[in-house]
């Protein structure tokens, strides 16, 4: 009996799902093959990177990272894209933890924090009212809770196709290097929106950051907010376009204005919305990102696998070049050179430790002397003020002046300390090995503290009022003596005790006594005010010195950790070099030939793997 099998009919939606499954499987197989090569060559850094890429391929969401230096308008940009105040924004507000915004049918918010568990991946999610998410986050951070991010879910059409936005903390303006945390997040992102406002062209650090970021995530766009306050923003955009081209960075540029976007949304004005610059950006997010998820996934996988394989092949080629037999003289020269590097490294360690120790000790003494000198200047001005002014009438104005003067002095002192931080950082890093590129650590800028809130305000002098009845009694006491004295004198001339002369003298002496008492009370008030202010300034000085010492101690620890990490890496490298030279000298010619054949075979396999990865960018799938 013959039975003809009919072909299976695949409907369009099922066919798309089937194609996605096939593509996803092929990508995962290719990633797993690359991961195995990383493990075989003992490269845990590249192994971790490929695991992150694998997670991104298996995640249907498309993560768009919003990055940039602080105060550039990242949070306002995210708020304008989704038309909701999901991120804290403002001149005095900085992003403390990342905020993830994704789609849901109903608005919701939750704080994600690390659980007190032995498993470092254990997370605890705390739902909070979406209208109070900012307050809840501030309270959690102020109480020291380990909040890792905020997750917001909104019913927005632009997010419906799987687009997920992440607002990130500022990457820092003092370092052009990617931190380990930022690097890990960038490697997992499908695309990056680099935010740099239109008030100035891209800085060297920002271009360097973009160059490093595109090595991990090739899909990058530059967003330039605040066009509403910069009349010449078009010139800035053109300059940045040239900077990106010169740096070899392919990125679209979107000049926008969040404030005009808010006004356009409120007034439902399409012309004003067009002026804001957001429609092209939204089309980019909606069509070129959310609409091309598969293409970007291919591009992301191809880019990362190619880069990882290139690093593996470079290391193998270097090892292959070292397989040629060397004479005993060459081996001895290499060993002596490596040992000299080890000795130079020891001397460098002593130099940078001595420079760091002396610099920190100078900072400890100079910071205390600097603010003490500034506070003495303020106290001298206080003495001059209260030589003339009456605290009873000028205290409120004086208190405001005192607070402003102390705040300015504190800001000047810590601004000077920040300059010294930069100078000391350069001096210490200059003492590292000359053969290593001088790397400046990612040390945060020193911010001026506000210790005035922790110090009780000086109180005005007590008994400042001089009641009318007390003035009358003082005048009567002075006039009584005058009337009595001059009355006795004039009575010898036959005049009564109370006469014109004695009464006039009593009035004069009473007035004089009253004026002297007022002057005496004024002097006491001025003396009390000066003493109160001196105690207050001394208390503030104590707090400032404490903040300064803590800041310097933190700076010392950061510089020491950075330099120690660099020298430890150099020491490990020199140690490995010496061990490799000794091991190579002990290896036989047969072992070297066998290892050379093995490396050549591995290079051929990696070349094939690299070609398969390159095929992904041209929408061609090749399973590993």
Describe this entry's structure for a reader.
It is a single chain. The protein is of the alpha/beta class and 624 residues long. Among the domains are: 60-289, P-loop containing nucleotide triphosphate hydrolases (Rossmann fold, 3-Layer(aba) Sandwich), CATH 3.40.50.300; 333-462 and 526-597, no CATH class. It is built from 16 helices and nine strands. The chain has a nine-stranded mixed sheet, with helices on both faces. Helix 7 (233-246) links the parallel strand 8 (220-224) and strand 9 (251-255). The longest helix is centred in the last third of the chain and has 87 residues, at 500-586. The two termini are 42 Å apart. It holds the Pfam family Dynamin_N. It comes from Halopolyspora algeriensis. Keywords: Coiled coil. Residues 64-213 form the Dynamin N-terminal domain.
Question: Can you describe this structure in just a few lines?
Answer:
It is built from 16 helices and 9 strands.
The arrangement of helices and strands along the chain is HHEHEEEHEEHEHEHEHHHHHHHHH
Number of strands: 9
CATH topology term of one domain: Rossmann fold
Q: What general form does the structure show?
A: elongated
CATH superfamily of one domain: P-loop containing nucleotide triphosphate hydrolases
Bin the strand percentage: 5-15%
Major sheet, described briefly? 9 strands, mixed
CATH top level label of one domain: Alpha Beta
Strand sequence of the main sheet, in spatial order?
4-3-5-2-6-1-7-8-9
Q: Helical region count? A: 16
> What is the level-2 CATH architecture name of one domain?
3-Layer(aba) Sandwich
Structural class: alpha/beta
Helix content: 55-70%
The rounded distance between the terminal residues' Cα atoms is 42 Å
InterPro entries: Dynamin_N, P-loop_NTPase, TRAFAC_Dynamin-like_GTPase
Protein name: Dynamin family protein
Keywords: Coiled coil
Pfam families: Dynamin_N (PF00350)
């Amino acid at each position: 009996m013959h039975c003809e099998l009919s072909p299976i009919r695949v409907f369009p939606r099922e066919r798309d799902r089937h194609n996605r499954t096939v593509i996803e499987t092929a990508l995962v197989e290719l990633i797993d093959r690359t991961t195995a090569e990383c493990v075989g060559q003992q490269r845990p850094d590249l192994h971790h990177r490929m695991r992150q890429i694998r997670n991104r391929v298996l995640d249907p969401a498309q993560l768009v990272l919003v990055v940039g230096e602080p105060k550039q308008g990242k949070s306002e940009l995210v708020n304008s894209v989704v038309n909701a105040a999901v991120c804290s924004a403002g001149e005095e507000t900085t992003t403390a933890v990342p905020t993830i915004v994704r789609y849901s049918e109903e608005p919701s918010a939750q704080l994600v924090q690390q659980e007190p568990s032995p498993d470092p991946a254990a997370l605890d999610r705390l739902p909070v009212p979406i209208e109070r998410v900012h307050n809840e986050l501030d309270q959690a951070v102020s109480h020291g809770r380990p909040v890792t991010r905020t997750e917001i879910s909104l019913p927005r059409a632009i997010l419906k196709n799987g687009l997920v936005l992440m607002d990130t903390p500022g990457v820092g303006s003092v370092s052009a290097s990617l931190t380990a945390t930022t690097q890990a997040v960038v490697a997992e992102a499908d695309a990056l929106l680099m935010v740099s406002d239109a008030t100035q062209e891209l800085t060297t650090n920002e271009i360097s950051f973009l160059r490093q970021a595109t090595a991990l995530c090739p899909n990058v766009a530059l967003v330039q907010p605040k066009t509403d306050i910069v009349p010449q923003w078009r010139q800035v955009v053109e300059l940045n376009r040239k900077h990106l081209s010169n740096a070899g960075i392919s990125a679209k540029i979107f000049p926008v204005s969040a404030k005009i976007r808010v006004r356009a949304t409120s007034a439902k004005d399409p012309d004003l919305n067009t002026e804001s610059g957001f429609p092209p950006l939204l089309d980019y997010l909606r069509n070129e990102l959310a609409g091309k998820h598969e293409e970007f996934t291919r591009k992301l996988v191809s880019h990362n696998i190619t880069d990882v394989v290139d690093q593996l092949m470079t290391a193998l080629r270097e090892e292959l070049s070292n397989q040629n037999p060397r004479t005993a003289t060459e081996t001895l020269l290499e060993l002596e050179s490596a040992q000299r590097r080890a000795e130079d490294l020891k001397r460098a360690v002593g130099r940078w430790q001595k420079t760091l120790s002396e610099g920190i000790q100078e900072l400890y003494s100079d910071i205390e002397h600097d603010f003490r000198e500034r506070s003495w200047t303020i106290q001298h001005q206080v003495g001059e003020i209260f030589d003339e002014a009456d605290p009873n009438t000028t205290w409120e104005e004086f208190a405001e002046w005192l607070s402003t003067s102390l705040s300015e002095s504190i800001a000047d002192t810590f601004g000077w300390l920040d300059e010294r931080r930069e100078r000391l950082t350069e001096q210490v890093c200059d003492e590292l090995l000359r053969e290593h590129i001088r790397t400046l650590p990612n040390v945060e800028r020193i911010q001026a503290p506000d210790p005035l809130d922790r110090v009780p305000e000086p109180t005005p002098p007590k008994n400042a009022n001089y009641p009318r009845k007390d003035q009358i009694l003082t005048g009567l006491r002075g006039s009584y003596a005058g009337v009595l004295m001059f009355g006795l004198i004039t009575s010898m001339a036959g005049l009564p005790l109370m006469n014109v002369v004695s009464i006039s003298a009593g009035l004069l002496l009473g007035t004089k006594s009253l004026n002297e008492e007022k002057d005496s009370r004024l002097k006491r008030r001025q003396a009390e005010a000066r003493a109160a202010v001196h105690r207050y300034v001394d208390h503030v000085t104590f707090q400032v010195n404490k903040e300064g010492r803590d800041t310097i101690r933190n700076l010392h620890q950061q510089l020491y950790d950075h330099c120690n990490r660099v020298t430890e890496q150099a020491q490990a490298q020199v140690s490995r070099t010496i061990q490799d030279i000794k091991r190579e000298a002990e290896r036989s010619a047969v072992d070297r030939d066998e290892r050379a054949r093995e490396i050549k075979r591995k290079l051929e396999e990696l070349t094939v793997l690299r070609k398969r990865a390159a095929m992904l960018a041209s929408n061609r799938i090749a399973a590993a």
